[in-house]
C-alpha cells in the first residue's frame, strides 16, 4: 500500500539501526521454541505460530495499557517487524492486562508537556494508526476488556473485532467527554466501520458502549464468553486466511486508501493542529478535571 511504503522507511531505518533496541537494553530478537517464535520489547509481547503464520500481539503495559510515547514506539516497531516477515499473514491484537484492552491515549502525555513533546507524541499516534489501518496482514482485535478512545481506535483499525461478552466492558470514542475532539482520521475510521450517522451520534455524545450495545451498533462484529475470546479470534483468523492474500489485500487497500492518503497528505498540518489545540489553557484544564475525576472515583 502507498501509505505503508511511506511509513516503512522511517520505522525500518530505526529498526535496522537498532536505536530502539539499544534504548531498551538489547535487541528484541525472536526466541524459538518448537513451532513457536516470540519476542518482547517490554510493553508488548509477540508470539508467532510458524505453522499457521499467525502472530498474537499482547499489550502488557499495566495498569491500563495506556498509549504513551514508549508504548506507541514499541507497538509500531513490533508491527513493522511482523509486516516485513513474509511468513506472517495474520495478526491477533489483544491484551495481557486483565479486564482492559487499552485505556487509549495516555492522558499524562497530553498534559503539562512541551510543544515538542506533544508533536513527537502525536506523530507516534499517527504512525500507529497508519501502520495498523494500512497493514497488509489480516488483523483481528480480540477485545478482552474495556477500550475507550485510542483503544477503540486500535480495535477499529483491525479487519474484524471479537469482544468479551461482559456488559462491564465498554468501547467507544469518548473524546468529547474529556473536552477534547477526535481528529478527522479517528472519525474516518469510525465512519468506515459503522457509517456516518452512527458516527456522528457516537462522537458528539462521546458515547461508550457496553459490549452488547457495541455489537448492536456494529462497533464489534461478534461477542463470545470471556474465556473464548482468543479461540474465537483464532477460528475467525483461519476463515480470513482462506481468502487469497493478494485479492484480500487489494480489496482492503481499495476500502482504506482514501482515508490513509488523507492523513499522509496533511500529516504535518495535523501535528500542528494537535499541538495548538492541546496546549490551550482551557483544554489543559479540561484534561486535569477529567484525570482528577478518574482518581476520585476510587
Ligand atoms: C479541532 C481538531 C482537534 C484535533 C486534535 C485534537 C485533540 C486530540 C484528540 C486526542 C484523542 C484522544 C484519544 C484518547 O485516547 S484520550 C484517552 C481517553 N481514555 C479514557 O477516557 C480512559 C480513562 N480511563 C478509564 O475509563 C478507566 O481507567 C478504565 C480504562 C475503564 C479502567 O478502569 P479501572 O480498571 O477502574 O482503572 P482506574 O480507573 O483505577 O485506572 C488505573 C490507573 O490508570 C490511570 N489511567 C486510566 N486511564 C488512563 C489514561 N488514558 N491515561 C493515563 N492514565 C490513565 C488512572 O488514573 C489510574 O491511575 P492511578 O492508579 O495513579 O490513580
From TrEMBL:
<keyword id="KW-0809">Transit peptide</keyword>
<comment type="function">
    <text>Key enzyme of fatty acid beta-oxidation. Able to isomerize both 3-cis (3Z) and 3-trans (3E) double bonds into the 2-trans (2E) form in a range of enoyl-CoA species, with a preference for (3Z)-enoyl-CoAs over (3E)-enoyl-CoAs. The catalytic efficiency of this enzyme is not affected by the fatty acyl chain length.</text>
</comment>
<dbReference type="Pfam" id="PF00378">
    <property type="entry name" value="ECH_1"/>
</dbReference>
<keyword id="KW-0496">Mitochondrion</keyword>
<dbReference type="InterPro" id="IPR001753">
    <property type="entry name" value="Enoyl-CoA_hydra/iso"/>
</dbReference>
<keyword id="KW-0276">Fatty acid metabolism</keyword>
<keyword id="KW-0007">Acetylation</keyword>
<keyword id="KW-0443">Lipid metabolism</keyword>
<dbReference type="InterPro" id="IPR018376">
    <property type="entry name" value="Enoyl-CoA_hyd/isom_CS"/>
</dbReference>
<comment type="subunit">
    <text>Homotrimer.</text>
</comment>
<comment type="pathway">
    <text>Lipid metabolism; fatty acid beta-oxidation.</text>
</comment>
<dbReference type="GO" id="GO:0004165">
    <property type="term" value="F:delta(3)-delta(2)-enoyl-CoA isomerase activity"/>
</dbReference>
<comment type="similarity">
    <text>Belongs to the enoyl-CoA hydratase/isomerase family.</text>
</comment>
<protein>
    <recommendedName>
        <fullName>Enoyl-CoA delta isomerase 1, mitochondrial</fullName>
        <ecNumber>5.3.3.8</ecNumber>
    </recommendedName>
</protein>
<dbReference type="GO" id="GO:0006635">
    <property type="term" value="P:fatty acid beta-oxidation"/>
</dbReference>
<keyword id="KW-0413">Isomerase</keyword>
<dbReference type="GO" id="GO:0005759">
    <property type="term" value="C:mitochondrial matrix"/>
</dbReference>
<dbReference type="InterPro" id="IPR029045">
    <property type="entry name" value="ClpP/crotonase-like_dom_sf"/>
</dbReference>
Amino acid at each position: 500500500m502507498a501509505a505503508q511504503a511511506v511509513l516503512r522507511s522511517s520505522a525500518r531505518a530505526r529498526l535496522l539501526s537498532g536505536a530502539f533496541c539499544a534504548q531498551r537494553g538489547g535487541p528484541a530478537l525472536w526466541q524459538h521454541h518448537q513451532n513457536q517464535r516470540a519476542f518482547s520489547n517490554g510493553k508488548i509481547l509477540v508470539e508467532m505460530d510458524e505453522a499457521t503464520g499467525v502472530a498474537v500481539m499482547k499489550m502488557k503495559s499495566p495498569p491500563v495499557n495506556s498509549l504513551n510515547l514508549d508504548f506507541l514506539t514499541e507497538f509500531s516497531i513490533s508491527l513493522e517487524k511482523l509486516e516485513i516477515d513474509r511468513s506472517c499473514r495474520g495478526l491477533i491484537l489483544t491484551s495481557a492486562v486483565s479486564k482492559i484492552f487499552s485505556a487509549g491515549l495516555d492522558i499524562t502525555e497530553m498534559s503539562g508537556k512541551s510543544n515538542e513533546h506533544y508533536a513527537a507524541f502525536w506523530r507516534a499516534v499517527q504512525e500507529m494508526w497508519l501502520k495498523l489501518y494500512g497493514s497488509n496482514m489480516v488483523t483481528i482485535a480480540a477485545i478482552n476488556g474495556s477500550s475507550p478512545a485510542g483503544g477503540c481506535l486500535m480495535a477499529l483499525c483491525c479487519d474484524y473485532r471479537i469482544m468479551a461478552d461482559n456488559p462491564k466492558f465498554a468501547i467507544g470514542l469518548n473524546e468529547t467527554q474529556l473536552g477534547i475532539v477526535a481528529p478527522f482520521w479517528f472519525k474516518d475510521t469510525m465512519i468506515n466501520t459503522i457509517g456516518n450517522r452512527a458516527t456522528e451520534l457516537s462522537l458528539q455524545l462521546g458515547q461508550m458502549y457496553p459490549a452488547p450495545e457495541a455489537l448492536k451498533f456494529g462497533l464489534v462484529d461478534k461477542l463470545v464468553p470471556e474465556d473464548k475470546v482468543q479461540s474465537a479470534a483464532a477460528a475467525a483468523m483461519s476463515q480470513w486466511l482462506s481468502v487469497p492474500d493478494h485479492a484480500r489485500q487489494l480489496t482492503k487497500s481499495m476500502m482504506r486508501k482514501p482515508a490513509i492518503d488523507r492523513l499522509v497528505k496533511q500529516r504535518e498540518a495535523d501535528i500542528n493542529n494537535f499541538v495548538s489545540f492541546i496546549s490551550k489553557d482551557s483544554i489543559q484544564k479540561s484534561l486535569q478535571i477529567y484525570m482528577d475525576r478518574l482518581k476520585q472515583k476510587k
